[in-house]
Amino acid sequence: MNYRHSFHAGNFADVLKHVVLTRILMHLRAKPGPFRVIDTHAGAGLYDLAGEEAARGGEWRAGIARLLGAFSGKVEAGFPQEGARALLAPYLEAVAAFNAPGRLTAYPGSPALVRAFLRSQDRLVACELEPKAAAALARNLGTDRRSKAVAIDGWTALNAYVPPKERRGLVLIDPPFEDADDFPRLVQALEAAHRKWASGSYLLWYPVKERAEPDALARRLRRVAIPKVLRVELGIAPRSAPDAAAAERRLRACGLIVVNPPWTLADELEVLLPALATALSDDRSGTHRVDWLVGEK
Ligand SMILES: C[S@@+](CC[C@H](N)C(=O)[O-])C[C@H]1O[C@@H](n2cnc3c(N)ncnc32)[C@H](O)[C@@H]1O
To answer: Which of 49, 128, 143, 225 registers the highest number of CB atoms within 10 A of its CB?
Structure first.
């Protein structure tokens, strides 16, 4: 495993994933019954943006830093919209809670964000296989009885932890995509877990480099017997960078699959995605889409 999330922490892809994650958590919290989150590829949980890897990658500057800039500045030509501002507030407040007022030096990963939204009755299981990241995750989650860090293979863990005893909850599957098998594996893992826990929600992240793999993923998902599958994609326009080769290697688009989304999510994303595409692209020319791959069957 060569992947280190610290190079990418807080980039546009993290922002999209974590904004959607936060909206799902807000919905889960709206009902009194307990929920469980299973984060199969959790990462270290908290990232130092001034640390060597995050500073070298610098991707957070075009991600969370840009979003904060856009939403803390004044409204120009109707942007940002009030609706998007209200929907983003829980995410931006959760990020701010890890930083001193007015500063941005730390970025919470998915397990730290989830933990921030747990109530006393809710639970988080966060899995991470890479030993250094797993040790950091255990440190960052600390001794909170509601959340557990496990140094384990996330694909195996998913099978072991599903179904949880709670009826409601979310599985986040966010592998590093170092290996081409992660695309088909995503669907196999989803199918197996959904067979055992059909009432849970699932959030899957994927990179968009060429169209072939994301389109094949969509075709596979349309064929499996899982209802209510929402696709969300965000593209940030290509940049004319001084180092064109580096710009070429940098991810410019990514997507999410949400299975069993909260009933309000698709409408919320219709408001949020245009705002994210504008705020996170170099020249406000970002692209997005929100569509149902499979409706209710
Ligand atoms: C994209 S990062 C996760 C980011 C995190 N979900 C977040 O949003 O903050 C993927 C993580 O999966 C870890 N990983 C890779 N293979 C794994 C496996 N088989 N099981 C669990 N974790 C794995 C990597 O070490 C890396 O930290």
So the answer is: 128
